[in-house]
Amino acid sequence: MRFWPHSMAGQTMLLLVVGLTLTHAVSMLFYSHDRDTLLAASGGREFAHRAAVVVEMIAAVPAGQRPQLVDAAQATDLDVSIAPENPLVREYEEDWRGRMIRELMVDELGPESACRMTVQVFDPAEESGLGLASLNPTAVANVRVSVGLADGSFVSVAGALPEHGMSASAGTLASTLVMAAAVLALSFVAVRRMTWPLRKFAEAANRLGRDVAAPPLDERGPDEVRRAVSAFNLMQARLRRFVEDRTQMLAAISHDLRTPITLLRLRAELIDDEEERVKTLATLDEMQEMIRSTLAFAREDAEGEAMQRVDLGALVQSLCDDLAEAGQPVECADPPSLVVPCRPQALRRAVTNLVENAVRYGNRAAVSIEARPDAVLIHVDDEGPGIPEDRIDQVFRPFYRLEGSRGRETGGVGLGLSIVASVAYAHGGEIALANRKEGLRATLRLPR
């Protein structure tokens, strides 16, 4: 499972939230450490002072009265006992709290007590063995001090230090969650404002691929955005002029060629040799067809037919019925009623080209429509020899011809599939060819 978002907005928001949350967590850890250290130091001073007072009081009375003082001290939260030997060992004195308590008690009891004093600080795992858990159920660390008296006995005083550790409290977790939620909400607004120009650019680029005459983008926003939008609009204007100039040039060439072709046709009629006259007229007809097809191909980019919501099934059925009535071997399975946005005339021309290619090179055409949640597929099947796999992508290039059954002698100038591809791309769709055992399948995909 992947948790890393694909969009730039999602990545930016995730980085902001994670970064600020980690920073807040680290800051809270430092704060918690300083707080706990201060509490431990304060509790250690208080314990050292009370333990020193108890030791001084017990040392000041005769041995027979000491049990009474021990009983009186037990009424507090200290555990006091007297033993003939030192009950502690000197293995835990490296703890910083133990060193601090030892120094404080030496200051109160005098330097001579240092050699007769043992201080130990125990972790929670060792509490049960020492009998200290009952002193303070919430304590995390416990301390015991043993001080030797002049008569050779030892006074042992045990107590509980305040909680020491960096465990997260409910308030810390709540503040972290509130901060993360606030950062997420603010970053969502900020990132959407930052990525809004990019979304507009993506929409404009997609629209430009379908309609070069689309309206320009609004040049508003920060300086960087306005410069990028201005450059995009300038590029779109240049592309529009290029397409218009190309169309005008082809129209001018077509107009200029009509006169000499007409003159050549008149002169060809005067040729005495019948066979030569027929060949010349056929060549002139081919030239005329090439000019007409070239202009039709150029108009696919330049014509501004408006998008309309059309019943695609009815359009395809009507087209197939017209071709069948004209004697073409065309079949159309009962198409479903699908209303899609399209340019009807351009789409009709594209489907007509696919059907005519199937009839010309594959003997017959079987048309069907497949509805999908996000697209509509128009399939045109034939019974021809198909196309070599390594040439399928090349047949959509203008004026490209295959050898053999799809050569020049079979008709066409190599622009039929180019026009189909142009119409498909203008609708935001695509055209694909696939070989089957029975022949070739052409699929025109249109978004819904």
Strand arrangement across the biggest beta sheet: 6-8-9-11-10
| Overall shape | rod-shaped
Query: How many individual helices?
Result: 10
Instruction: Output the radius of gyration.
Output: 47 Å
Low-confidence stretches: 127-140, 404-408
Number of strands: 11
The percent range for strand residues is: 5-15%
Average pLDDT number? 78
Helix content: 40-55%
End-to-end Cα distance: 31 Å
Helix-strand pattern:
HHEHEHEEHHHEHEEHEEHEE
Which structural category fits the helices and strands? alpha+beta
Largest sheet: 5 strands, mixed
Outline:
With 448 residues, this protein is an alpha+beta fold. The protein is built from 10 helices and 11 strands. It has helices spanning 8-60, 66-74, 96-109, 127-130, 170-210, 223-269, 274-302, 312-325, 344-362, 416-426, and strands spanning 79-83, 117-122, 142-148, 154-160, 308-311, 330-332, 339-342, 365-371, 375-381, 430-435, 440-447.
Provide an overview of this structure:
This protein has 448 residues and is an alpha+beta fold. Helices cover 54% and strands 14% of the residues. The strands form three sheets. Strands 6-8-9-11-10 form a five-stranded mixed beta sheet. The chain has a four-stranded antiparallel beta sheet with strand order 1-4-3-2. Helix 1 packs antiparallel against helix 5, helix 6 runs antiparallel to helix 7 and helix 7 packs parallel to helix 10. The chain is rod-shaped and about 155 Å long.
What descriptive keywords fit this protein?
448 residues; five-stranded mixed beta sheet; alpha+beta; 54% helix
Task: List the topology elements.
Elements: H1 8-60, H2 66-74, E1 79-83, H3 96-109, E2 117-122, H4 127-130, E3 142-148, E4 154-160, H5 170-210, H6 223-269, H7 274-302, E5 308-311, H8 312-325, E6 330-332, E7 339-342, H9 344-362, E8 365-371, E9 375-381, H10 416-426, E10 430-435, E11 440-447
Parallel strand pairs: 6-8
Antiparallel strand pairs: 1-4, 2-3, 3-4, 5-7, 8-9, 9-11, 10-11
Helix pairs in contact: 1-2, 1-3, 1-5, 6-7, 7-10, 8-9, 9-10
